[in-house]
């Protein structure tokens, strides 16, 4: 079914397209009778006419859309939660969130030229050409998530290395010298796996403990059991594991049970994200909370400040919002 246009409304109501535009846009100074106005609005409602985003932008002089560009990530609970909080924070400021999952194929320029956002925020790096083109078009470019360059103005960075450090530090403080790292196998999160693992390695080195024993773990029982066996056969045996995230950690708990082992008695386990299910695992999962609601508030405040030509109030680094949630698994 084709979209209803202003020409359809004009034909249905028996007036010109200019008159339709004046009525539906409440154009000041247009002399149009109330009867005609009522007829045009009735036609528009009956036909289901909705002005395009581009038309609304031209009429108001600006868009209310904030385009959020995600790389080709799996949309797990953490990303879903962050986007949900961010959408709520922006809505309170009269802005709408549009999320674009960037995959190979359609160029980013096709998207921002179509929807005409007021601002673009990325969890992926923009090419210099895209960044400059958006700025020339009057679109605020508000940075990207890039752990390797957290000090650049307009960049949002939660320290993935700090997550790994926090996991390892807790395991060391609870008496574990030899720890393992359960790495997710999805290639789309490889950067995050490596950054968190870097944090674990750095913490082990500074504490004078052996480097973490890395095992890949996908979300299957066979994979989890294989990793548990490798850690137990290691000399000396691994007694605690930092998992890439809670999903991997939950798989490990199942792998331990399948081997007749317990957490933390045989192997302590720490996850990341504090998903709702973490408190209901057996045993309840110790994990790292990323304070996603706080990250969303800061991000929304930075977006709004950038749109108003201001600088957001300085706040602690997002890595400082991390919180260790201690439960029975470690």
TrEMBL record:
Record domain HTH lacI-type: where: 4-60
Matches recorded under Pfam families: LacI, Peripla_BP_3
Record-linked PROSITE patterns: HTH_LACI_2 (PS50932)
One GO MF term: transcription cis-regulatory region binding
Assigned keywords, A-Z: DNA-binding, Transcription, Transcription regulation
Acyltransferase as UniProt keyword: no
UniProt-recorded name of the protein: Transcriptional regulator, LacI family
């Amino acid at each position: 079914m084709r979209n209803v246009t202003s020409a359809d409304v004009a034909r249905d109501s028996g007036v010109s397209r200019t008159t339709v535009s004046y009525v539906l846009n409440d154009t000041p100074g247009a002399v149009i009778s109330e009867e005609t106005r009522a007829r045009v609005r009735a036609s528009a409602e009956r036909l289901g006419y909705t002005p395009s985003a581009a038309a609304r932008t031209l009429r108001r002089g600006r868009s209310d859309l904030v385009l959020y560009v995600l790389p080709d990530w799996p949309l797990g609970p953490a990303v879903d939660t962050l986007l949900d909080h961010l959408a709520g924070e922006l809505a309170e400021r009269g802005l709408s969130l549009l999320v674009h999952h960037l995959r190979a194929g359609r160029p980013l320029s096709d998207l921002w030229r179509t929807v005409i956002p007021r601002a673009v925020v990325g969890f992926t790096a923009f090419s210099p050409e895209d960044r400059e083109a958006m700025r020339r078009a009057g679109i605020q470019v508000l940075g990207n998530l890039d752990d390797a360059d957290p000090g650049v103005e307009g960049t949002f960075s939660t320290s993935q290395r700090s997550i790994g450090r926090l996991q390892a530090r807790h395991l060391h403080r609870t008496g574990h010298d030899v720890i393992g790292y359960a790495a997710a196998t999805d290639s789309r999160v490889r950067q995050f796996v490596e950054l968190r693992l870097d944090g674990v390695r750095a913490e082990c080195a500074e504490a004078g403990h052996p480097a973490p024993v890395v095992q890949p773990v996908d979300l299957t029982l066979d994979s989890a059991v294989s990793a548990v066996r490798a850690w137990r056969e290691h000399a000396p045996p691994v007694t605690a594991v930092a998992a890439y995230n809670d999903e991997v950690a939950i798989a490990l708990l199942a792998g331990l049970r399948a081997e007749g082992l317990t957490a933390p008695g045989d192997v302590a386990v720490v996850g990341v994200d504090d998903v709702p299910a973490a408190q209901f695992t057996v045993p309840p999962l110790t994990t790292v909370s990323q304070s996603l609601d706080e990250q969303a508030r800061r991000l929304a405040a930075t977006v709004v400040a950038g749109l108003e030509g201001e600088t957001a109030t300085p706040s602690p680094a997002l890595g400082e919002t991390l919180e260790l949630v201690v439960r029975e698994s470690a």
